[in-house]
Amino acid sequence: MDITRVLIKPLLTEKTYAMNSNKVKQYAFLVNPKANKHEIANAFAALYEFKPLKVNTQLRKPSKTRTMSYFPGFEKKKKIAYITLPPGKDISVSSQEAESKQNKEKIAATEKAKEKGKLKEVKSPESKPIEEKKSEKLETKKVEKPSK
């Protein structure tokens, strides 16, 4: 099976958030129902660049959807993979977490570069103070009204 089709999306529920807050971090992913544990571990390693400590899987049978229509439907068969991370490792599942981590890394990198002297601060060209600019805008020409 193709590695890109194994992990479908992260599963974000109250239970998975509780598993993330423990010392041993566990994350839940919806995976392809035909994928086995080895394929899931390899796909995770390709995506996050380290192997998981343990992979547990769970099958959820298709359940009836409660609709008031004449033809009630069924939900699809789902397979959930609970992936345990090695100690000291962490991943970002949501896009907000990823963006905040990237911003923190960029800030830390620029601070290190400033300390080493590789990055110099560029001074902007001198300009007029803000107060002078405001006074220039307020000054307008007064025109005398013609008398009748």
The secondary structure category is alpha+beta
Write out the strand line-up for the largest beta sheet, numbering strands in chain order.
1-2-4-3
Largest sheet: number of strands, sense, barrel closure: 4 strands, antiparallel
| Mean pLDDT over the residues | 78
Roughly how many Å is the radius of gyration?
Answer: 29 Å
* Total beta strand runs: 4
**Count of separate DSSP helical elements:** 4
Share in helix = 25-40%
**Unreliable spans:** none
What proportion strand?
15-25%
Shape by Cα distribution: flat
Order of helices and strands: EHEHEEHH
Cα distance spanning the termini:
93 Å
Features:
148 residues; alpha+beta; 4-stranded antiparallel beta sheet; 4 helices; 4 strands; 34% helix
Lay out the secondary structure.
Blueprint (H helix, E strand, L loop, with lengths): L6 E4 L3 H7 L5 E6 L5 H12 L5 E7 L17 E7 L10 H22 L13 H9 L10
Antiparallel strand pairs: 1-2, 2-4, 3-4
